[in-house]
Amino acid sequence: MTIFRTRFVLELVPHTSSMPRDGWVGDHDLRPLSDRGRRQADALVTAIGTDVEAVFSSPALRCRQTVTPLAETAGHTVECLDTLAETERFPQPPDWADGVLAPMAEPLGGAWSAGRMMRAMAIMSGRHEGGRVVAASHGDSIPLALTALCALFDVPLPLAIDRGGWYTVRLDQGQATVTAHPGEPA
């Protein structure tokens, strides 16, 4: 994987405002955007722009709905990557959750989840080296990925953003920058 030696721009978008988790009955991957979230998703088309090579998403409906307006305007389909999925409370690697490593199970779960997001970045950069892509993921997965990436490249963490914003990750042959875009209120 060449993620660390490539040129690549990733617009990393936390899904926009969705129906509340509390009170939702059924599969959380089917929880849709709220009206506010749909307005935020529409605003991302202009804010991010359509000069992108591809659009990726977590399989969750709310993530796909976040980037569908941009994908359609740019003439792309949304490609789902399981590695962009929600962490589901940072599950531990099953083989390391017991025994001598049990006291470290929780941090190991965070590291495992961050690694999955880094794999998503490697997949996207491998397919679109030198390009610019958009990817929608979750409010738990994205901070893990950005923390790991910033630590790896020894760059400052960006400001935390609210729904409707996004992060630009620029990788340039061993260098990285991460920029926060707070977005506009819907």
Automatic annotation (TrEMBL):
Pfam families: His_Phos_1 (PF00300). It comes from the Bacteria. InterPro entries: His_Pase_superF_clade-1, His_PPase_superfam. This is Histidine phosphatase family protein. The lineage of its organism: Bacteria, Bacillati, Actinomycetota, Actinomycetes, Streptosporangiales.
